[in-house]
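User: Please predict structures.

Assistant: First:
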Amino acid sequence: MTTFHLQVNGKPHTIDVDADTPLLYVLRNDLKLNGAKFGCGLGQCGSCTVMVDKAPVMSCLLPVSMVGARAVRTVESPGSRWVPSVVLQQAFIDEQAAQCGYCIAGMIMRATALFEQLPSPTDAQIRDWMQPNLCRCGTHLRILRAVRRAADVLALQPVRKKR
């Protein structure tokens, strides 16, 4: 066992786990943040997607020892203009993008990363960006419409400087 100091959703956490423990297990088992889901355990579905700094990461593949001082954000993190989870979640509701809902937290985190890197994405950029995440229920077209809807709403919001 090793002690790790993590910054998750803006809060410090100290945990004692084996260095090769996947970040997903730490989030779910130790920190009780259950938004990210275990889907395949192989980095092939994206249900476990979280953000590490500004990058979407499949947390089932990332050992906690590789996180270091980087900021981890999960779907449980609060929304803002720069982390637009509230807008995204409403868009997913409006488009009825969730059937079983298992993949949705990972989809929202991947879309959040998209908006942070490309604030006004094209439809092709949205498709390319969302491609690594799978929806086994087959609501991909609704998910893409939800991300497009959120992008359109966010484009209308005034941009404020970060404090």
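Second:
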Amino acid sequence: MLDREIARSVFVTGLKNAHAMENQALSIMQPQVNRLTHYPDLSQRLQSHIAETETQISRLSQVLESLRESNSSMKDTLLSAMGSMAAMGHAVAGDEVLKNSFANLAFENFEIGAYISLITAARASGDSHAVALLEQSLDEERRMAEWVAAHIPSVTETFISLKGTGESAKV
């Protein structure tokens, strides 16, 4: 049998980390969506996922508040800054849209792992209310990861086509 107090401690730490992770996701996606000109489907899906991510942050805050805890402003700020730096790093690449697609797929899968762990810790700590909220976020992350993976071929083909015409293909 798992110790509920230890499980709660792991759960709270995970919630704070996930809150920061979702802020990092926003700082990665927002610059991307603002730069996309030749990839309207990707732009639209990123805009939709930005709205989902904002809702996920709200869910995480709700769970933290129910536990009489709060997010870590320091973690939120630090990971958000790291996300902004990652976005800037790809902006100088000649194949920015491709690099962003690969990084987005990796990040979505990281988030999936984080939510699976959070759900496990919530169950171990006896917080059944949080499980339903976290499962909603997990489902959204899985759908986004599937979408990104399914669209890497079309993004790559558009990139190649634009590059062949001499247009800026990177975004």
